[in-house]
Write a structure and sequence with these properties.
Arc Repressor Mutant, subunit A, mainly alpha, 7 helices, about 190 residues, Rna Polymerase Sigma Factor, Chain: A
């Protein structure tokens, strides 16, 4: 059984990668943050007593289900918004404050590197992220779980609800597509 410290450490270790995975899926930062927070809360509330070894698979399944729930809610919301779009033109609170924009990096971290290195790295990462976003959903999920989350084939198959062979196929197709797209843009990794 996972202790509170182990659960906290696990959630801290997957937070950033889970956010990237969610933002690739929904393409909205605020929604991605909400999805990750909801998934973490669900894991802590319902499965906090599970062994530490089971947490990665459980979290991935919860995260994927939370993303799917988001799309279901968006479909309903979009339907109602389109039906009543002519009734109101007022927008909500837009004070423009973003806590993430006010954060300052610590000295000695990656954020404190030289401007030229950071710009080059950011440009390459932007190209990679754009290409990852273009992948079909199942290929993107398999790719992110295997190579971003460092999950093995069996764990990825269990989280995605498919066979290990399907995971291997999705990953292979994703890596070939990404490599070809990056080569076409003059990027070799």
């Amino acid at each position: 059984m996972a202790t509170d410290k182990e659960l906290s450490d696990f959630l801290e270790s997957v937070e950033r990668r889970a956010f990237k995975q969610a933002i690739y899926a929904v393409r909205k930062e605020e929604s991605a943050l909400d999805i990750v927070q909801d998934a973490m809360i669900k894991l802590a509330e319902k499965y906090g007593d599970k062994p530490t070894a089971e947490l990665p698979l459980l979290f991935q399944r919860i995260l994927q289900n939370t993303i799917h729930d988001y799309f279901r809610r968006e479909k309903v919301r979009t339907t109602w918004i389109s039906l009543f779009s002519g009734l109101s033109s007022e927008s909500g609170d837009q004070d423009g404050f973003d806590l993430l924009e006010t954060y300052e990096a610590e000295v000695g971290t990656q954020a404190a590197e030289s401007s030229a290195d950071k710009v080059e790295r950011d440009q390459v990462l932007a190209v990679i992220e754009a290409e990852v976003k273009k992948l079909p959903t199942r290929q993107r999920e398999a790719f992110l779980m295997r190579y971003w989350q460092d999950m093995d084939v069996a764990e990825t198959a269990a989280a995605m609800g498919c066979s290990e062979g399907s995971v291997k196929t999705h990953c292979s197709r994703a890596t070939h597509t990404l490599a070809q797209a990056l080569r076409a843009k003059g990027i070799s990794l």
